[in-house]
Amino acid sequence: MWLRKIEEEDEHDGRVVAVLKEEVRAGDELCNSYIDIELPYAQRQRELAEYGFACTCVKCVAEQTVAAAPARPPRKLK
User: Fold this and answer.
1) Is 12 within the bounds of a domain?
2) What is the mean pLDDT of the chain?
3) Are residues 40 and 23 in the same domain?
4) Same domain, yes or no, for 20 and 44?
5) Residues with Cβ within 8 Å of residue 20, at least 6 apart in sequence
6) Band of residue 35 on the pLDDT scale cut at 50, 70, 90
7) Quick check: is 78 in a domain?
8) What is the pLDDT of residues 62-75, one digit of tens each?
9) Is residue 31 a contact partner of residue 2, using CB atoms and an 8 Å limit?
């Protein structure tokens, strides 16, 4: 489950304050994104590079595959 901050004021002394909107169980993974995860792939990677890493989450890997796929030349209609 991704944690989403609503306002920048949700950060206090380097800690993030978040409210969960779903029930979680002990052992459930909680993820906190350094950036807006709705940004386009290339922009997310640029912003994450500022933190010194490239993201390899499921979303980024899938979008990287699409971004790296060669563009098909336009087909001629007969």
Assistant:
1) yes
2) 79
3) no
4) no
5) 1, 3
6) confident
7) no
8) 998 877 666 667 77
9) yes
Separation CA 72–CA 65 (nearest Å): 15
For the chain, what is the largest distance between any 2 Cα atoms, rounded to a whole number of angstroms? 65
pLDDT of residue 3: 59
Q: Nearest 5°: phi and psi at 10?
A: -75, -5
The pLDDT of residue 44? 92
Task: For residues 27 and 43, state if they share a domain.
Answer: no
Q: Is 66 helix (H, G, I), strand (E, B) or coil?
A: helix
| Residues 6+ away with beta carbon under 8 Å from 6 | 19
Does a structural domain hold residue 17?
A: yes
CA distance 28 to 47: 27
Domain that holds residue 53: 36-69
Report if residue 63 sits inside a domain.
yes
Q: What pTM, to 2 d.p., does this model score?
A: 0.56
